[in-house]
Amino acid sequence: MAQHAPKTRAQLAHEYGVCRKTFYNWLKKLDAELPKRRNLFPAEVERIYALLGRPEKKRRKE
């Protein structure tokens, strides 16, 4: 498991290419109980990746 820096939900939403509200709704539908604090620890980020799959790397527009 790769270690990541703590991330906010907004940063994760950006990685998935969706707005923050959509990302919150995804987590709610998955019943992913996460702490209310602003930053998510690396283990929590990995848990989200396990639930949603890893976000695709953004491709540059040519």
What is the strand and helix layout of this fold?
Blueprint lengths: L6 E2 H8 L3 H10 L9 E2 L1 H11 L10
Antiparallel strand pairs: 1-2
Could you please describe the fold and organization of this structure?
The protein has 62 residues and is mainly alpha-helical. The chain has one domain (7-52). The protein is 47% helix and 6% strand. It has helices at 9-16, 20-29, 42-52, and strands spanning 7-8, 39-40. The protein has a two-stranded antiparallel ribbon with strand order 1-2. The radius of gyration is 12 Å and the shape is globular.
Which class do the helix and strand fractions yield?
Answer: mainly alpha
Oligomer: single chain
Number of strands: 2
> How much is the average pLDDT?
85
In short:
The chain contains three helices and two strands; from the N terminus they run βααβα. It is mainly α and 62 residues long.
Labels describing this entry:
single chain, 62 residues, mainly alpha, two-stranded antiparallel ribbon, globular
